[in-house]
Amino acid sequence: MLIETYLLAQREIRRNVLRSSLTVLGIVIGVAAVIVMVTLGGGATAKVTDDIAKLGSNLLQVRVGQAFRRTGGVRSDAPAFKMEDATAIAQGVSGLKAVAPVSIKPMQVIFGSANKSTSITGSTLEYLDVRDWNVVRGRSFAENEERSGQSVCLLGETVRKTLFGKQESLGQNIRMGKTSFRVVGVLEAKGQSSFGTDQDDFVLIPIRTFQRRIAGNTDVGSIIVSALDGVSTQKVKADIETLMRARRNLGGVQEDDFNVHDMKEIIDTMTNTTKVLTALLGAVAAVSLLVGGIGIMNIMLVSVTERTREIGTRLAIGARERQVLMQFLVEAVALASFGGLIGIAVGLGMAALGARLLQMPFILNTGIVVASFLFSGAVGIVFGYFPARKAARLDPIEALRYE
After folding, report:
1. Are residues 327 and 9 in contact, defined by beta-carbon separation less than 8 angstroms?
2. How would you classify the pairing of strands 258-262 and 59-64?
3. Is residue 257 part of a domain?
4. Cα–Cα distance between 51 and 198 in angstroms, integer?
5. In the chain, N or C: fewer CB atoms in 10 Å?
């Protein structure tokens, strides 16, 4: 009985192909929009997480002057860190993998006729351990080079390409300000971060060299810390805050003039933000499914009006109201389900293309695909029931008299 009803529904749909296609279009757009939004949102979440993870594993950043006063605004009178602060953290906080003092200054680097404005980063050997960064060509600094502040450097891939192109960079000398630096290594490429910055656009030099040749002082801009696997970064953060408050002579009522950023907290915050935005965009896209459902209801009401005599004939020769209701309801569900299948195909195709263009991973969410299809079928049932009920309750005599 159900198969026969479905075949009748298919015959009626094929009888008015153009009208049925336009009706289905609303469902196609709705399902495709939901799938595209949710899939791209999932890809964006994965990209943000991956990009922040590239900054380093279990990473914490200790910065100067980041605490806010109760009256508002950032403290600008906080004293800078010193090398001794990094040493104190390394020796006084347990569960750490590496600690690296960092100072950064924008400068122009020059090689021959090529030049580039970039960031000069001064740090220690531990910088590469904290950031999980590898040297792909050449070597890192030697201990004696770091200790004595020699003029050697490691290049990020972006700087290497700009200055040297296809030329060999190892052993060459580049100029920063009035100082010549010898290139001893090239770092692996990490690409653009989710914050829109090129992570490979920098030059790494020993921090003592930076202080003597670039900055002209012994200040340290920030300290980056990597915790061992399995160690709670929240505990490490609390221990660092306690140690730094003691070193900076901050009493119990005094506010911090520094801040410790836990990258896991940033990952969680950004991930939750992207998930909320994805859910919001998915909900907005789902509204178009309801619009498509209204279109189905409208066309089914038109169909009932056009087939009034047919319905009267069926009822007159013994068809039950339930059978007539089922016939029109199956037609509505068939339209919605067919639109759902096409919408899934279109949505996945557009999501794959969007992920490629936006350079983010394509993550297939089978749950949202199934949910979109079931929702499209539910739309067919909900919006098809009223026209089907109207058809089933027609008076056979009045229906046969209808012109």
Report:
1. yes
2. antiparallel
3. no
4. 11
5. C
Q: pTM for this structure?
A: 0.62
User: How is residue 176 written in tokens?
Assistant: 């920063």
pLDDT at res. 397: 61
**Residues 238 and 279 reside in one and the same domain:** no
Same-domain pairing of 345 and 197: no
Query: What is the token pair recorded at 395?
Result: 């008076």
Of 192, 217, 247, the residue that ends a domain is: 247
In a domain, 260, yes or no: no
**What 8-state DSSP symbol labels residue 72?**
S
For residues 120 and 46, membership in a common domain is answered with: no
Q: Would you state the structure tokens that stand for residue 208, as one six-digit string? A: 């003592």
| 283 Cβ neighbours under 8 A, 6+ residues apart | none
The beta-strand segments (E) located in 22-150 are: 59-64, 96-111, 114-123, 135-138
- Give tens-digit pLDDT for 283-299: 777 777 777 778 777 77
DSSP characters over 162-201? HHHTTS--TT-EEEETTEEEEEEEEEPP--B-TTS-BTT-
CA distances to 228, 238, 286, 348 from 231, rounded to whole Å, are: 6, 13, 43, 40
For residues 293 and 289, what is the distance between their CA atoms, to the nearest angstrom? 6
Number of domains in the chain: 2
pLDDT digits (tens, 9 = 90+) for 352-388: 998 888 888 888 888 888 888 888 888 888 877 777 7
3-class secondary-structure state, position 363: coil
- Do 182 and 309 lie in one domain? The reply is no
Q: Which amino acid is at 139?
A: R
pLDDT of residue 284: 76
| 99 shares its domain with 233 | yes
> Would you state the pLDDT for residue 276?
81
User: What's 78's DSSP letter?
Assistant: P
Show the domain range for 193: 80-247
Clarify whether residues 178 and 242 are in a common domain. Answer: yes
Identify whether the C-beta of residue 292 lies closer than 8 Å to the C-beta of residue 33. no
Q: Tokens at residue 11, please?
A: 């015959």
Single out the residue of 202, 216, 17, 209 nearest to residue 116, CA to CA. Answer: 202
CA 63 to chain CA centroid, nearest Å = 26
